[in-house]
Amino acid sequence: xxxxxxxxxxxxxxxxxxxxxxxxxxxxxxxxxxxxxxxxxxxxxxxxxxxxxxxxxxxxxxxxxxxxxxxxxxxxxxxxxxxxxxxxxxxxxxxxxxxxxxxxxxxxxxxxxxxxxxxxxxxxxxxxxxxxxxxxxxxxxxxxxxxxxxxxxxxxxxxxxxxxxxxxxxxxxxxxxxxxxxxxxxxxxxxxxxxxxxxxxxxxxxxxxxxxxxxxxxxxxxxxxxxxxxxxxxxxxxxxxxxxxxxxxxxxxxxxxxxxxxxxxxxxxxxxxxxxxxxxxxxxxxxxxxxxxxxxxxxxxxxxxxxxxxxxxxxxxxxxxxxxxxxxxxxxxxxxxxxxxxxxxxxxxxxxxxxxxxxxxxxxxxxxxxxxxxxxxxxxxxxxxxxxxxxxxxxxxxxxxxxxxxxxx
Length: 409
Prior knowledge:
By secondary structure, the chain is an alpha/beta fold. It has 18 helices and 16 strands. Helix content is 42%, strand content 18%. Helix 1 packs across helix 18 and helix 3 packs parallel to helix 4.
């Protein structure tokens, strides 16, 4: 079987949850005899092809149907929320000789993929990686900010191109990585396959010995400081600013702590505000911001293995792959009680919840982890057992069964 894995962008330098899923599920499927090609726009990359670890990746030119569109606004759309046109990507999907198209995008890319599948008379599957059911209003407004005041000519192109379908309704199967989307779409299960298939993790990678210098040595973090780790995009959705007053409160009462933030900067203005707040709270010397690491960078594993606690304060989180990575590395997890984290993290068993808008709840969860060694050990042990259900081989087998079903059903 030959599958086209279609994604809006695919950059190893700007790694996110969707890229993580597409890449690792592709590798897991290869071991089961299913070959995939990854097709994407050249957003945050260059047009052309490459082969990495035996997987062919093809990137195509694209444009956003807005005028005028300065470079900074185009870059903002590339990083988050853009809905581009890519005629060359459309042609590649139609002429690639695929047996199935798996869509990991929304908007026009998804509609182009559905049209290509119909043209070739092959099935298509769409994965909802979040943002379908519960995007907060503020986040949606920020995503659309680059388009304000622009002339939109996409409607004319949509009509000329015949792009008017609803990809979720047209797909032969719908994969929900978040429980909210699954609950919303489950009534459609009689019409097509709708299933909940969570994201996965490379357990051996994060549980193993790091192949990099110790995290404190790498980023000059004093050994006596308790290290709090947050791995996520530097973005208003991820809410890292909540951690700065929390850090100030801890240091104000004499605790030796340090905050390590790792993730690509998808909202530069937010990163500037974050560090300005750290300076204002006089804790900038206790905050280290690493603007993204490649997925194969050994320093990422070293960070997980060398930290004392993992914190994820997101305002909106459909799933939370980084929680799986923390579990595999043996880190206790403090997670905001939002979105997919509500169900992924079992409060008191595989981690502790806190309310993202109530700092006192984060302090309470943190103090329990620090002052109750038995609870910490119990959470780590429980999480190590729980994470086995999310290994990529397990997810790959479920995905392969779905492919076989829609191809022969």
